[in-house]
Amino acid sequence: MASAEIAAEHERILREIESTDTNCIGPTLRSVYDGQEHGLFMDKLEGRIRNHDREIEKMCNHHFQGFVDSITELLKVRGEAQKLKVSKTKERHEQRYMQCRLQQRNIATTIDKLTHCLPGVAFRAQYYPALCTLEQLEQSCLPKAGGYRFCAIMAENIPVLRTHIRDVSMSDLKDFLESIRKHSDKIGETAMKQVGLCVFSAFAGLLQGLLGIVPGAHDLVDFSPVYRCLHIYTVLGSRDTFESYYRKQRRKQARLVLQPHSNMHETLEGYRRYFNQIVGFFVVEDHILHTTQGLVNRAYVEELWEVALSKTIAALRTHSSYCTDPDLILDLKNLIVLFADTLQGYGFPVNQLFDMLLEMRDQYGEILLKKWNLSFRQIIDQDNYSPIPVSTEEEYRRISGQFPFQDPELEKMSFPKKLPFSEFVPKVYSQLKEFIYACLKYSEDLHLSSTEIDDMIRKSTNLLLTRTLSHCLQYAIKKKNVGLAELVQIIINTTHLEMSCHYLEEFISNITNVPPDGVNATKLYGTSTFKDARHSAEEEIYTNLNLKIDQFLQLADYDWMAAQGGGQASDYLSDLIAFLCSTFSVFTHLPGKVAQTACMSACKHLSTSLLQLLLEADVRQVSMGALQQFNVDVKECERFARAGPVPGFQGDTLLLAFIDLRQLLDLFTQWDWSTYLADYGRPTCKYLRVNPHTALALLEKMKDTSRKNNMFAQFRKNERDKQKLIDTVVKQLRNLIAAHQS
């Protein structure tokens, strides 16, 4: 063949190779091997391959950057697509769930129905031919055979055989009843697990369809004895007898199932076994209801359930009342919900169970209050009643995360610094949030609206605030050995907790999705709780200050017969003033009015106590020297008041606490009786605050002193004149008192 022809042939073969499907390329390759110049063709093939490689490389280089850009875009889109997929999955969540559940139920029903047919088929293969044969013998064959003896014997044995078949089937039925009694717990457990799985996963039905249906009652118990016995009794004309026997036995078993163990309340497992048995019982009855024709009917099953429901609720009320553990109550509530949902799935009404759960909510709330009472008491007992020191920004942020506290001025200060409140505040606030979470947990799955849940949580939280926490705060305020510094810190703590109440309102709204400003929204009573506690602490401060003042006054040791007074204040009073100065310096963090009220209250009490000390019945005599020393002490008190131990008083307002004493002492030390008697009763009287009874009582003490301490006063004209003057003043005071009394 000429070289041109060979080249043309090779070119044709190459085009055929390039265009032919690989499955049909065999003949083409055979023509290559059969032809001539095999080596020349191979060279040409190699060349063609290199050309194609260059074309492919050129094309790849041309599109490479576009490919890279496309991959980059795809990576970006993948993340968005994933988000979109999740979103769409959630949107289709309920629909797919319902479809899967419906498919699962249809599959289970189909399998169940087919399974139920098998015992009937088996029965017909075993017993039905025998019964038919007996009937055929009795009705047809034996009468035709005539009066032979063997016919008579066979006729006599037919009833015996029927009775035997009936007795065998009844024995099987009794074994069946014993079997379902033993397996009720397992059947109920399986049914509740199936419902629990469906609640746990929205795609549980699909998963069960893929992985295998959860075993039903027919998987755990062989129901063929019931069907066999029912059919035999029906054929024998004794169906009513069989139905009556079956229902009677099942009622007996129901009574046993509904009788709880005496220690059921001790563990959750006790309740679980109780519920499993009840569910198992009614799952079997539901199975019998749907797989037999009239052995049990809907009215019978509903009657059984009505009795079971009332006894179950009564048992739960009794046994749950012993529970003091909120976690056990919460677990029991979840178990009751699962129990109710399971039976509701079989068509049984369970509203009364949910009503009972609402009753248990109150019990749960009371148990929570007791638990939180212990928590609050522990926090109070462990608190050091000192501002929290913070050394680093991390510590500051940690505490700010526990308690919503904002103080721009404090934030500007450098570390280390102190927060105004003690550890009591963030711990109590955290406990309040934990309590709200605990209330929310109980409200889940009770078929309540968001508004009902919100209302329940707010009412429970109000009980915690107004009853439990309020009592604990009173305990902290009234307990023994509580000092003024602790009371001051309690006031500061309750002030900050009061300011945080609106954050609690927002916290509840966020978890219930109910706005706090709704028309029917229950408001938290936290503000009034903390305000009342603060007022109580303030009163306790006033009382404790007065007690401290009384303790110092008990150390007073005046020489009531002193000839003249000293130039310095008494030691007990100097110590008392030093104590008051130190105490009021701690009041700097208190609200201004509280500090001012405490200071004024202390000064008034001191003034009143000093006057009572002077007029005390045990003090029978008071010399002018003693009165002068007493005057020095009162001046020391006035210097303390004038120095302004607490800021905020206008002018000499604090001095007014000692004005009664001051006017009384001025009257006696200046012996200004003519002015007092002449101006008494006038609004502008110099000694307006001096009560004539008080003046008379003190003057009587001084009159006795003049008489007893000056034995020779009658021989001294000046003393006699002074005594006459005292007697005259005493007489005038008595006349003044008598005139105003009349």
Automatic annotation (TrEMBL):
GO terms for cellular component: exocyst; plasma membrane. Residues 352-701 form the Exocyst complex subunit EXOC6/Sec15 C-terminal domain. It comes from the Eukaryota. Pfam families: EXOC6_Sec15_N, Sec15_C. The keyword Transport applies. Keywords: Exocytosis, Transport. Residues 44-192 form the Exocyst complex component EXOC6/Sec15 N-terminal domain. GO terms for biological process: Golgi to plasma membrane transport; intracellular protein transport; vesicle tethering involved in exocytosis. InterPro entries: EXOC6/Sec15, EXOC6/Sec15_C, EXOC6/Sec15_C_dom1, EXOC6_Sec15_N, EXOC6PINT-1/Sec15/Tip20_C_dom2. Belongs to the SEC15 family. Component of the exocyst complex involved in the docking of exocytic vesicles with fusion sites on the plasma membrane. This is Exocyst complex component. It comes from Astyanax mexicanus (Blind cave fish). The lineage of its organism: Eukaryota, Metazoa, Chordata, Craniata, Vertebrata.
